[in-house]
Amino acid sequence: MKLDFISIFPEFFEPLKLSLIGKARDKSIIEIGVHDLRDQAINVHRQVDDTPYGGGAGMVMMPEVWGKAIDKVITQESELIILTPAGQLFNQRMAEELSNSAHLIFACGRYEGIDDRVRQYYLNEGFKVREVSIGDYVLNGGEVAAIVIAEAVSRLIPGVLGNPESIVDESHSEDGYIEYPAFTKPAEWRGIKVPEVLLSGNHAEIAKWRKSAGESRANHNQ
Ligand code: 6GU
Fold it and tell me: Does residue 40 have its Cβ closer than 6 Å to ligand 1?
């Protein structure tokens, strides 16, 4: 899978050199491109934003600049993801869908967002386009959201995780499913004991306890 990130802050994507994603890049399971939007600026001031038509606060990112940047990376197999708090809420089901894609382009907007004609244009040209949000709160830009999505998606790609079984039974692997709490040695820590049943070796009882502990955890989160 290829992941391209377009942003005025390419340094935001340095963490994608670390850990499992870094290793997946070394193994060429995923390929990552980071592109400075300002390289596509069209005037001497390297301007990427302008005042909104209709008035109001903030600045809007210019369509010409975004069009040039996206044209450089888009192909017939690309999916364009525009990060905005006004987008469709990201979840594990969307991560699974996106993990089947060959190429994701993350357009990281700042300020009041990207001129909406960018979305309209690529949609009209027949590309897959979605506006995505990672939650009901506002960030200063789409960069952190793009990293969140990239991490959730890449770990679903075969070969990225060390142990592929860990994605079968984890929280959100099914809608509403929350995993049971985990414990390791020592059996008692600061006066708190590990639930007795987990030390029993009785796999049927352990499975029962885990199911119920996961369900009560899910209820607490409501
Ligand atoms: Cl994708 N962008 C911004 N700026 N804020 C957000 C978001 C995205 N998702 C949640 N809040």
Answer: no
